[in-house]
Specification:
303 residues, mainly alpha, 2 domains, 9 helices, 89% helix, 0% strand
Length: 303
């Protein structure tokens, strides 16, 4: 019993003496700097390993963004520069046709506005004239188609002096009037045929450029052996640009042609009125000539 108590006391004393020593040994062996350094050195490779995939993913995203920007930067001018030589020739020809269309539009608009206004003013001036001479004096040097008609009527009356048949004089004057009106109609329609040709052929010319461009795009697809839309889209867009050029040239040409057809018809109606006015003045002069001749004959008979 005594031995058991002694052993127990010895064990407890040993434990009381060993525990502070163990704690002191642990406290003396603990170094915060070494522990922190080990922790940082352990974390840094982990962070590097974690950021490496992130960097590669960022590079992939940036590459995708740059490719998207490249696709969005396709403009008509860049597509024209990168198109085939045949497609370029088609687009240049259609652009020139469009330029011709707008040039004719501006020139004919100015011309028709001026001559219509001048002819209406000339018709108002001769409305109260009683003879060809008065009408020519009222017009002066206007330079309108009415001046040409009056000059033709006076020339025919002068060349037919001494002829008793008024019907023949009027018939010959009407023939001269018809020639002048036809010449004026041809002159005023100058450029209308060009507009009609541009309006009728431009869509088909643009379609030819589109077919040629798409054919080259399919050849490129077969060579690259890929059907990726990013690869084939630029060639197809360049081909479709030719069709757009054709429509841009054709639509204004058709509209302008129809507009000038109506305006020209109105002007030719004024020319027809001018021809009728010149014919009436010639008829009055012929009647006056016969009246004066008949009066001279009667006066001689009375004497």
């Amino acid at each position: 019993m005594f031995r058991t108590v002694l052993k127990t006391g010895f064990v407890l004393a040993f434990m009381a003496m060993g525990t502070p020593a163990f704690a002191q040994q642990n406290t003396a062996g603990y170094d915060p700097k070494i522990s922190t350094g080990a922790t940082v050195s352990t974390v840094q490779p982990s962070l590097a390993a974690a950021t490496a995939p992130v960097d590669s993913g960022t590079a992939t995203i940036e590459a995708a963004k740059s490719s998207k920007v490249t696709l969005h930067e396709l403009s008509p001018w860049s597509m024209f520069l990168s198109a085939d030589i045949i497609v370029k020739a088609v687009m240049v020809g259609l652009a020139f046709a469009s330029l011709v269309t707008w040039t004719i539009f501006i020139a004919k608009m100015v011309e028709l506005s001026f001559i219509q206004r001048s002819l209406r003013a000339a018709l108002r001036k001769i409305a109260d004239s009683r003879s060809l001479a008065e009408a020519q004096f009222a017009l002066g040097s206007s330079g309108t188609i009415l001046s040409s008609l009056l000059a033709a009527a006076m020339r025919e009356a002068r060349m037919s002096a001494g002829i008793s048949s008024d019907a023949g004089v009027k018939e010959r004057a009407a023939s001269s009037f018809a020639e002048i009106v036809r010449a004026e109609s041809r002159r005023i329609r100058l450029g209308m045929g060009v507009l009609a040709t541009i309006g009728a052929t431009s869509p088909f010319v643009g379609l030819f450029g589109t077919v040629w461009g798409i054919m080259n795009s399919f050849i490129g697809i077969s060579k690259s052996q890929t059907t990726n839309l990013a690869v084939v889209a630029p060639g197809i867009a360049e081909a479709l640009l030719a069709t757009a050029f054709g429509l841009v040239a054709a639509i204004p040409a058709v509209i302008i042609y129809n507009h000038f057809s109506r305006v020209t018809k109105g002007y030719l109606e004024l020319v027809s009125r001018s021809s009728g006015a010149a014919g009436r003045l010639l008829s009055r002069d012929l009647d006056r000539t016969h009246v004066s001749s008949q009066g001279r004959v009667n006066s001689r008979a009375a004497e």
